[in-house]
Amino acid sequence: MKKLLKLKEWLTPEEAVYYLSTEIGEKVSVSDLYRFAIDEHLTLSVNFVNQAKVKVGQVVKIHHSELRSIEGNNFTDEELSEPSTLPLDHHIHVADDTWVALSPEVTSIRGVWDLTMLGSELLDVENHYYQQTSGVEVILSCLEGVLIRQGDVVCQLQTNFNDIEYQLGTNTKKIIDDELCKRKEPLYSPSGSLDDYDHILVVRTEEVTRFIHSMKSTAAVDKPLTSRERNNLLKLVSATLKYADIDINDRGVIEAIVKITELNGTAFSDDTIRKYVNQIKDLA
Q: Distance from first CA to last CA of the chain, Å, rounded?
């Protein structure tokens, strides 16, 4: 599997969990994979088998003073009790002063893109997770649409308005249809789901490898020291103290070591230092 893994740019969720289970030594399910992605431990990606339409953008910082101030209700023309702010045209708010600035043009993409988990793609993954674990369907929506990225490039998935199924009154639907017929160019709107295009969820091979390394590193840190490792560490500390001409049997040595740790920015209490000094003495 390792040899074949090097030849693959991405893995299906089933392939990814098989490899993870083998390397970690614990059974991992596809629902676990979705949970890792939701909790931002692992980056999930999408492979658009055929072309998908998007607006291309990038992450930018925008100060509050740069936003458009709105003082009246757009629908009733009534003055608002408190002015509100709106982003600049083609900008999406993602966090604090962070925005995604989108170009107005719609273009085509295909291939593998990473899920940002900032828009509707998060709801898609949550739906996969809950469908597998409890059968519950996620019916929430997200105004930001589907946001995907490759490096510094962020895209918002777009869907042709003609392809959207909507429930409207007869008169309203006729007005919209008439307006669409007048337009020479298609009218696009943010996609509500990855399902608007042919796609499969995947995990980049390099991301699987990174995740495995992080899991193994965590396991190594959390693994308690054996008696031999503990004794070797105490011997190392003892040798360091002797090299620094510090005799652990001297009166006042505890206070001296405490002072050294404070000066180093890694202060320990008297009791902690005394405990380790006594353990070093027991090894003698």
A: 50
* Six-digit token string for 173: 């639907």
Q: Beta strands of the chain (E only): which ranges?
A: 10-11, 45-61, 68-72, 79-86, 91-95, 98-102, 107-115, 147-150, 153-160, 188-190, 199-204
**Spatial separation of the C-alpha atoms in residues 51 and 77, rounded to whole Å:** 41
Which pLDDT tens digit goes with each residue over 215-270? 877 655 556 778 888 888 888 888 888 888 888 888 888 988 888 888 887 778 88
Helices (H), 134-252: 170-182, 205-222, 227-243
Predicted TM-score (pTM) of the model is 0.67
Phi, psi of 100 (to 5 degrees): -110, 115
260-283 b/e with 16+ CB inside 10 Å = b?
beeeeeeebeeeebeebbeeeeee
Pair 52, 110: CB distance under 8 Å: yes
Burial class (CB in 10 A: 0-12, 13-18, 19+), 234: middle
Nearest to 100 by CA among 60, 62, 139, 73: 60
Backbone angles phi, psi at 131, to 5 degrees: -65, -40
Residue 246 CA to its chain's centroid (Å): 49
